[in-house]
C-alpha cells in the first residue's frame, strides 16, 4: 500500500479520529470471493466510514443507521474516486463484536477490490489492526472472557465438524463458567482463612483446619478433573499424527490410499517405491488426523532411499500412533522380528495387510500384539482399523463437548493444583502454616484467574492474541 494513503485526511469541518484508536482490517480472506468485509472499530469508526461511504440515493449515509444495513457507494476519501458499491452495517457501542462503535463495509471480493477498499478506510483515518485486535478489544470491553476469545480462534481453525462443534460450545462460555466456579470456591476458602489471620492461633475455631483441608481436597479433585480434559482438547485442536511404517512392499501406500479413499500415493510391486513421506489429512470420528505414508524400512545403498528411511524413523518417533504394517500373506522372518522388537507397544498399532490373500502369519506368532487384519485391495477390515485407531488415540465419543482445556489452560491448572496441594500440606502442619497456605492459595487463584482473563497482563494478552489473524 502506498504511504500517501496512510495519512489521515483533513476533511474540512471534521476532526480526524484520534490516531490509533480506530482500527480497521479485512475480516474476510483475501482472494477471489463474492464479497469482502472491511471491519472498522473504535470511537472514530463512524467518522471514518462517513468519509468513505455516500448514500446511493441522497440523504445522510449515517442518519439513524445503527443496527441496520444500507446500500452505499464506496469511494476514496482523498480522490473521491468511486471504488465500489456495497453494503454498510453499523453497530453502536456497546452492542457490537468489540463493544465499541463498529462499521462493517461489504464490497465485492477479490484481492484488488478488497485492498482498495481497505486502503480507502485507512486513508480516512483508521489504523490497520494488529492480529487479533478486534477480539482483544472485545475481551477488554467485557464482551467475552479469554476462554471464549480462544474459542473464536479454535472455531476459525477447526478442521473437522466435531472440532467446530466443541469450539462453538466453548464460545458459549461453558469452560469459562467451570473455571469461574473453581475460582469462586477457592476465593471463598481464601477469605475464610484470611479472616482468621489477624487473630492469635488460640482463636482458630475447633476443626477449622480439618474442614478447610477437606474443602481444599474437593477443590483439588475438581481442578485435576479439568486437567484430564486436555487430551481430548489437544486431539480436537492440534489433531493426531499417525504414521504408517513397515517394510518395502508391505502395502503402506495402498493402505494410505484406502484410508483416504483416493489414489494419492504411487503403488507398485517394486520394493522401495515410496521415498519422501506423503502426508494427508483425514477425519477420524471427528478428530483431525495427519496420516503419513513413509519409505519402506530396509538397508539400502541408494542415498535417496536411505534418506527416506531415516525420515520414516524420525516420523515414527514423533507419531501419536504408529501403524506398523506387516504383509500378512508372507511368513514372519528375522527382519520382521527385529522391527517388532524396536517398536513401542504403547504407541504402535500392528496391522496385518493383504488380508484378501491366504494368511501366512498365525496370531500365535505375535502373542504380545493385538493385530488388525486389513485388505487395502478389497477394503476388508478397514472399518475395524478406523475404529481401533480412534480407540487407541483416546477419542471419547461420549465426552461432553465444550469444556476441553488447551495447553495454556493446563499449565495454569497444574500450577493451581500444585499450590492447592501445598496449602493442604501446610494446614496439616504447625498452626503458623495458615499464613503460608493463604499465600499459596492466592497464587492458585491468580493461576485460575489467568485462564478466563479475570487476572490479566499485557504479556498474557499478547501471547493469546498473537496467534490470531489480522481482521479477527
Ligand atoms: N493382494 C493385495 N495386494 C496388495 C494389497 N496392498 C498392496 N498390495 C500390493 O503390494 C504391492 C506393494 O504395495 P505398495 O502399497 O506400493 O507397498 P508399500 O509398502 O508402499 O511399498 P514401498 O513404497 O515400496 O515401501 C503392490 O503390488 C500392491 O498392489 C492388498 O491389500 N492385497
Ligand atoms: Mg509406498
Quick structural summary:
This protein is an alpha/beta fold and 472 residues long.
How would you sum up this structure, described in words?
The chain has helices at 45-52, 111-123, 133-140, 146-157, 161-171, 174-196, 208-227, 230-238, 252-260, 303-318, 334-342, 382-393, 407-428, 433-452, 458-465; strands at 23-26, 35-41, 53-55, 69-75, 82-91, 102-108, 127-128, 240-246, 278-284, 287-293, 321-327, 348-353, 371-373. The chain has 472 residues and is an alpha/beta fold. Strands 3-4-5-6-2-1-7 form a seven-stranded mixed beta sheet. It has a six-stranded mixed beta sheet with strand order 9-10-8-11-12-13, sandwiched between helices. Helix 6 (174-196) runs antiparallel to helix 7. The longest helix has 23 residues, at 174-196.
Describe the protein's topology.
Blueprint: E1 23-26, E2 35-41, H1 45-52, E3 53-55, E4 69-75, E5 82-91, E6 102-108, H2 111-123, E7 127-128, H3 133-140, H4 146-157, H5 161-171, H6 174-196, H7 208-227, H8 230-238, E8 240-246, H9 252-260, E9 278-284, E10 287-293, H10 303-318, E11 321-327, H11 334-342, E12 348-353, E13 371-373, H12 382-393, H13 407-428, H14 433-452, H15 458-465
Parallel strand pairs: 1-7, 8-10, 8-11, 11-12, 12-13
Antiparallel strand pairs: 1-2, 2-6, 3-4, 4-5, 5-6, 9-10
Helix pairs in contact: 4-5, 6-7, 6-14, 7-13, 13-14
This protein binds guanosine-5'-triphosphate and magnesium ion.
